[in-house]
Amino acid sequence: MPHHSPLISTIVGGFVLAFLFGTLAHRLRMPPLIGYLMAGIAMGPFTPGFVGDTNLAQELAEIGVILLMFGVGLHFSLKDLLAVKWIALPGAVAQISIATLMGMGLAWAIGWEPGAGLLFGLALSCASTVVLLTALEERRLVETERGRIAVGWLIVEDIAMVLALVLIPALSGLLSGQGASLSAGPLLMAVGLTLGKVAAFVAVMLIAGRRIIPWVLERIADTGSRELFRLAVLAIALGFALGAAYVFDVSFALGAFFAGMVLNESDLSHRAAEESLPLRDAFSVLFFVSVGMLFDPSILIREPVLVLATLLIIVVGKSLAAYAIVLVFRHPRSTALTISASLAQIGEFSFILVTLGLSLGLLPTTGRDLILAGAILSILINPLLFRSLDRRIPALEESEGQAAGLRPVAGEAPSHAPLHSHVVLVGFGRVGHLVAMSLLEQKQPFIVIEDQPDVVKALRADGIPALYGNAAAAGMMEAADIATARCLLVAIPNALEAGQIIEHARALNPQIEVVARAHSFSEQTHLEKHGATHIIMGEREIAKGMAAWVALQESAEPYAA
Prior knowledge:
Blueprint: H1 6-27, H2 32-42, H3 54-74, H4 78-83, H5 85-109, H6 114-125, H7 129-138, H8 145-170, H9 184-222, H10 226-248, H11 252-263, H12 269-294, H13 299-302, H14 304-328, H15 333-342, H16 348-359, H17 365-403, E1 423-426, H18 430-441, E2 446-450, H19 453-461, E3 466-468, H20 476-479, E4 487-490, H21 495-508, E5 513-518, H22 521-529, E6 534-537, H23 538-556
Helix pairs in contact: 1-2, 1-3, 1-12, 2-12, 3-10, 3-11, 3-12, 5-6, 5-8, 5-14, 6-16, 6-17, 7-8, 8-9, 8-15, 9-10, 9-11, 10-11, 14-15, 14-17, 15-17, 16-17, 21-22
């Protein structure tokens, strides 16, 4: 048996180096994905030492994209998608057009053919699925209005790139590439066929898939086999992605997203998300490694001015365009900044367009190197943009809340009667909603802090005291009368943000009882360190409930001697 296998060595090398560089990045207080990119550069063909198989790495990375989009679909519904269509569709089209024109302008300035400029601009216009969703998931934004707009925007970009991949070969001759261009009739037929396939795919998924996918998972769940259930989840995610690509000519990511979205209506969607999470994280790491492997660092020395210009189009030009578009649609500045930061990078479809352009003779090799340099540098910069945004968003949300007539910050007239011996509830998601219903039944006085303005308005309409803004922002705890509260319930899932909230509340009211939620023992330790007195972990509480039921049965019906 041969001991050298490109597949095994690429996977092992990718994971080991990603672990080492990711750990180093974490120790240096940088996002781990920067370490993953460095690992890819280290095992790429342009640096000395071990060299992985670039083609295999890209195919493995595609699995990560599929699983990631499937996971997003599990938290997304058709209603969510339709709710943002009025901004996602025109916004994405306008942003793609602006970024493409900027890319074409740079290409024209350095003397490239129009076809090369068009392909170059298109490659700079489409954001990376993995980078965008990783940033949103880290901040628990996928299920917020900002997250839904970003994901909807991403879906429109995906469909636009699918159309581009159909049109570019058909127009190759006209664009000064290899091959003959199609006349108007066949060209329109090709576009119509592509749009028809996309529409047919969506119809099949919403009509047949909505019934078949939940039914299959429910039958497998009835077997009681966790292994079969996990295998079913992976088979559905990967199978529908592959089927969508081969039968309907849409992207793997789009197929996986719709498979997850139709499964969202099933009661098993949460379990499906948990089962796919480990593989999703692992293959997402391989995506960043594969991007690093494509990067030739020498381009930074050969063409520094062109690299900088390309990077400015991606990070500044695209961001400003998206920011302006979101504001035109009358969304808050906080939403506009989140969308612009999310789109300030490029990824998967850019690489596909590069490969297509080279095969058709449309794109020079310098264009490939510039796109890859722009991709990796923008991915490196993107976490820094989000960190800066994290510091600015709370203040923006406060000011937006004042402008919308919601909760004013500390120092202004309160929008509710002064409270005493009350409960402060942070977050009104699924958990927070259930907690609030229980407090109402018990007739316990409480106030809610929530960062979704529509939720705050609805609570106030129902007569429930509610403050709009980020609970970690300055003045929010004081506005909730935390100094006279008897209990703080932190129902948000973000442990890092919860720690900040608890620490601030404890400083204002050292005697307050603080209850928070955690998903792991490390999160529990973090929250306790910041002053939480009680930590609720879902799995542990279920186990306690089961054990308590057994003890109750034993006391009620003792075993016979």
